Amino acid sequence: MVPSRTIAPPLADVLYAMAEDGADEEQADLSEDVWAGLMRHGADVARRIEEGMGAAAAPVARDQVDPDDLAALRDAAGVIVTRDHRRGRVSAAAYPDEIELLAAWNAIVAEVEPGAVDVETSETDDGPEGPSPDPKA
Question: At what angle do helices 11-22 and 42-53 cross, to 10 degrees?
Fold first, then answer.
């Protein structure tokens, strides 16, 4: 299994801006001034970044982006972006595997808001009991 990849600045900052505007899921702890966002479908995220690099007012120039970071995004099940507002730190990590992505997200949710972990384990998983019975059977 390929491990997650930490995305370097300035691409991490671009991912933060994207996540603020359209994360699939968000979590915040106002008392700690921490925010986290999950964006699924890394290939779509990479495509949007690459399209943005071609714009006149690009948020980041192609020569500022590590090509390996962009490749990791293309192959990722998703990206988790976090921002510690007190310290002014942004971090982002691309996760190639859906299970690893959701495990990392659930850990963040549990840390930010204990008792709030309620993310589905997979869009294809019907739960711990297995598939739901067919109501027509």
Answer: 110
Assigned domain for 127 exists: no
pTM for the whole structure: 0.79
Distance between CA atoms of residues 83 and 26, nearest Å:
11
In this structure, the number of other CB atoms found within 10 A of the CB of residue 35 comes to 21
CA angle 116, 117, 118 (to 5 degrees): 105
Q: Which domain holds residue 52?
A: 5-112
- Top mean-pLDDT range of 2-6, 26-30, 36-40: 36-40
Say if CB 19 and CB 81 are below 8 A apart: yes
Residue whose entry in the numeric block shows the structure tokens 């971090």: 91
Total count of domains within the chain: 1
Number of alpha carbons in the 13 Å side-chain half-sphere of residue 34: 13
